[in-house]
Amino acid sequence: MAILMITFKLSTPGQDYSPIFDFIKNLNVWAKITDSCYAVSTHLQPSELLLELRPHLTRDDSLYILTLDGPWIGFGPNDVNEWLRERLG
């Protein structure tokens, strides 16, 4: 399974973005890096993931999906650090 980073800027006031967050959380293996950035472990390709998320975005929003690979460096909540350590080394 690939480890992908989903990062976005949601810019449309009043837009219901809950389907994006629901989809990410339904992937079951995810970590919230920041309010607008998630790491997920999935069998989906970045293009497939984009196809799932794109209908819930407006033209004023931004979304990028990147494939992650170790090594990595950073700090934050222990649960996020452990999630990344387990999957990326």
Question: How would you characterize this protein structure?
Answer:
This protein has helices spanning 18-26, 46-53, 78-88; strands spanning 2-9, 30-34, 37-42, 62-68. The model has no long low-confidence stretch (mean pLDDT 95). Helices cover 31% and strands 29% of the residues. It has 3 helices and 4 strands; from the N terminus they run βαββαβα. Strand 2 (30-34) and strand 3 form a beta hairpin. It is globular, with a radius of gyration of 13 Å. The chain is α+β, with helices and mostly antiparallel strands. A 4-stranded antiparallel sheet has the order 2-3-1-4, with helices on both faces. It has a single domain, classed as 2-Layer Sandwich (Alpha-Beta Plaits), CATH 3.30.70.
Keywords, separated by commas or semicolons:
31% helix; globular; alpha+beta; 29% strand; 89 residues; Alpha-Beta Plaits; 3 helices; single chain
* CATH fold naming: Alpha-Beta Plaits
Global Rg: 13 Å
DSSP strand content: 25-35%
Stretches where pLDDT is under 50 for at least 5 consecutive residues are: none
| Widest sheet: strand ordering | 2-3-1-4
Strand tally, please?
4
Percent of residues in helical segments? 25-40%
By helix and strand content, what is the structural category?
alpha+beta
Q: Element order, helices and strands?
A: EHEEHEH
Structural shape: globular
Per CATH, the class reads Alpha Beta
Mean of all residue-level pLDDT scores: 95
First-last Cα distance: 14 Å
What layout of secondary structure does this protein have?
Layout (H helix, E strand, L loop, with lengths): L1 E8 L8 H9 L3 E5 L2 E6 L3 H8 L8 E7 L9 H11 L1
Antiparallel strand pairs: 1-3, 1-4, 2-3
